[in-house]
Design goal:
This protein has 393 residues and is an alpha+beta fold. The protein contains 15 helices and 13 strands. It folds into two domains: 195 residues, no CATH class; 115 residues, no CATH class.
Length: 393
């Protein structure tokens, strides 16, 4: 029987592999998904322990075989993607071959994110980053059934989810392309649900659409956007939006994200990221619309990336220069008590109150002025330094 540890990532490999159906799911006090074992149904077969990436002997892949900077040749694809459209290109190639793509879908009506597939919704619904924990359900079992039917499958998830699927399957499959990304931790669906409900009360209407990476201010500026049924729109830069700000400050992340072991040792074939360190590629490429970094971790991943050259402008990079994107972006474990205090505040009072506590009055004023200027393009043109990419102060 698998032992549920604090370091559990919620990947649900144990739940999916249990032959007795003895492992379910529950949310802890801060809304993070955790497996729960019904000991009366457990067969003590040990399959859950073998599938668990925290227990596994495989340590993942630390270094990429090749690295590419790229952007999709379709401006529309780049505009609806978080960065340069690398995931869209890889997924399209799989779909052309009659395959299926699995990825995260944000259901704004239910206010939850979960694993979905292109047999049940268009690929566009699986695009863009969702800065929240996604529910896997029996998704690994679905992937396995398609692979057993001889179908090509692309699975895209967090590094720990990719490790979970790898542990569940127990072996590599030539028809499976595993894709993950440079992950900066996840927040709980409870925090996002409460925040969206607060926005609905404020705008007196139900949320219709949400985008965590709206490019209204350009690709380099993180921006949270929400559209409501009454036609009103909410748009704030990450520093001005309470939910996004607290996410970037690592104030609401899952415990297992503290010093995550999967952030630097991936189980995937391809790792995707924004290509912030773009240098000359930004000038010669597509400017502020979005650039992707794609890392081939396996030979299969390299072949998959080479197969999309017809869809994208690509340039091979020095692997050492590109590998910095694989570094863990989450907080060390010694920050855990502080993070727990932040989460308790967010759970009781909301992320807006937490943001106010984390910022000095001077910084709050700075971000308010900056947002005011950015919402007025003519004014913003006179303050290029103020409206730059905008890192945390």
């Amino acid at each position: 029987m698998v032992k549920i540890k604090e370091e559990c990532t919620g990947c649900m490999a144990c739940r999916n592999i249990c032959p007795a159906g003895a492992i379910g799911t529950k949310r802890n006090e801060n809304g993070f998904l955790m497996p729960v074992v019904d000991s009366s149904r457990c067969m003590h077969c040990g399959q859950c322990e073998e599938a668990c990436p925290l227990e596994g002997k495989d340590s993942g892949r630390p270094d990429p075989k090749k690295a590419y900077a790229m952007y999709h040749l379709s401006e529309h694809v780049v505009s609806i993607s978080s960065s340069g459209g690398a995931f869209y290109a890889l997924a399209s190639e799989v779909l052309k071959q009659g395959g299926i793509v699995f990825g995260c879908y944000l259901d704004v009506k239910k206010k939850m994110a979960y694993l979905a597939d292109t047999d049940h919704m268009p690929l566009e619904k699986l695009l863009t980053s969702k800065y929240v924990e996604s529910y896997i359900g029996d998704g690994y079992q679905k992937v396995k059934r398609h692979l057993e039917a001889g179908r090509k499958v692309l699975f895209c998830g967090t590094p720990c989810q990719a490790a979970g699927l790898s542990g569940f399957l127990g072996k590599d499959d030539e028809n499976l392309l595993l894709v993950d990304f440079a992950c900066g931790a996840v927040t709980s669906q409870t925090f996002l649900r409460d925040y969206l409900r607060g926005l609905e009360r404020r705008f007196q209407s139900k949320v219709q659409e949400v985008n965590f990476r709206d490019k209204h201010y350009g690709w380099g500026q993180y921006c949270f956007w929400a559209k409501f049924e009454n036609g009103r729109v909410y748009r704030k830069t990450a520093m001005s939006d309470p939910y996004f700000f607290c996410f970037l400050r690592s104030s609401m992340q899952r415990f297992s994200c503290h010093g995550c072991r999967f952030a630097e040792r991936h189980y995937s074939d391809v790792v995707l990221s924004d290509f912030w360190k773009c240098g000359h590629f930004l000038v010669e490429g597509n400017g502020r619309r979005g650039l992707s970094l794609a890392l081939a971790m396996t030979q299969k991943g390299q072949e998959a990336l080479e197969s999309i050259r017809g869809q994208a402008h690509m340039e091979e990079l020095d692997r050492a220069e590109a590998s910095y994107h694989l570094k863990a972006r989450s907080c060390p474990k010694d920050k855990a008590p502080e993070i727990y205090a932040h989460q308790a505040c967010a759970a009781q009072h909301g992320v807006s109150v937490l943001r106010k506590q984390l910022l000095t009055p001077r910084k709050r004023l700075y971000y308010a002025v900056r947002q005011f200027v950015m919402d007025r393009p003519k004014l913003a043109a006179h303050f290029p330094k103020l409206v730059g990419r905008g890192q945390l102060m």
